[in-house]
Write a structure and sequence with these properties.
The protein is α+β, with helices and mostly antiparallel strands and 253 residues long. The strands form three sheets. Strands 7, 8, 9, 10, 11, 12 and 13 form a seven-stranded antiparallel beta sheet that branches. It has a four-stranded mixed beta sheet with strand order 1-2-4-5. The chain has helices at 15-18, 41-47, 83-107, 143-152, 230-237, and strands spanning 2-5, 25-29, 35-38, 53-59, 69-75, 124-126, 159-165, 175-188, 196-197, 205-208, 213-222, 228-229, 242-245.
């Protein structure tokens, strides 16, 4: 018996290698297959707003993440759960499931032939993430979409916006600000590119998207600075206004 852990990059095993172990090879994959086959299952599931998420233990075949499923377990998550904290939880679950399944595989109760075949019509690919995907676009993304991307990309590449600090007519260079932690407010507001802090203690920076939905940025990181909460960011502005920029628009130049 040879057991394999899921790798953070796509990996194909040759058939001659897979044929070596007497009972086959097993793999832990942090998604509810066949949804999110590929290199970035946790990130893509959070980006899509999936809940529950889960983990699969499956036999390894030459086609990536396509083998028969030995067992699966679902996990209901908080709406603010990030990939950074979710991935360890899923692998802890997956390891437990793998250890529980091993005796049944060794005894022949579960085999490649008796395990659950994946439904190819339900496959969703979890493509490798590109660093350019980290930019948020409030001009065309809702607060929920922005929030889910912040959650999904918390490990890498992170998410960011372009801010302009100071009066709108001042020709200042845009500032790249990473969004480290966020949440979605229930209220709706009139769309605007002006960013303000909420009125209560502990409130974050309020980013109003094109549809009026509001993303509250709880922790941010301006370029070359440390991670900070919203109040610390506002204090550093020294009374200056701040706006988010749509860098795809002519108005941002």
């Amino acid at each position: 018996m040879l057991t394999l852990s899921w790798q953070p990059r796509s990996h194909y095993w040759p058939k001659r290698f897979l044929a070596l172990p007497k009972y086959g090879t097993l793999n832990i994959h942090p998604s509810l297959l066949p949804r999110w086959r590929g290199s970035s299952p946790v990130q893509r599931s959070l980006e899509a707003g999936d809940n529950p998420v889960g983990v699969s233990v499956l036999f390894t075949v030459s086609k990536m993440d396509a083998g028969p499923i030995v067992c699966q377990e679902e996990l209901a998550i908080d709406e603010n759960e990030q990939a950074t904290t979710l991935l360890p939880k899923l692998f802890e679950m997956g390891t437990r499931n793998l250890l529980e399944a091993l005796p049944k595989v060794i005894s022949g109760e579960i085999t490649m032939e008796t395990a659950k075949v994946q439904d190819e019509s339900r496959v969703v690919e979890a493509g490798m993430i590109d660093s350019s995907e980290g930019e948020l676009f409030p001009a065309k993304m809702t607060a929920v979409e922005c929030h889910n991307r912040v959650r999904g990309f918390s490990m890498w590449p992170g998410t960011y916006l372009y801010f302009r600090v100071g009066d709108e007519d001042e020709a200042k260079e845009p500032v790249v600000v990473k969004v480290i932690e966020s949440r979605v407010l229930e209220e709706k507001m009139e769309p605007t590119n002006v960013i303000d802090i909420g009125p209560k203690k502990g409130d974050g920076l309020r980013l109003v998207c094109f549809d009026g939905s509001v993303l509250e940025m709880v922790k941010v990181q301006p370029a070359t600075r440390s991670v900070m909460d919203a109040k610390s960011f506002v204090n550093g502005l020294q009374g200056q206004s701040v706006r988010w920029l749509d860098m795809t628009s002519e108005d941002s130049t």
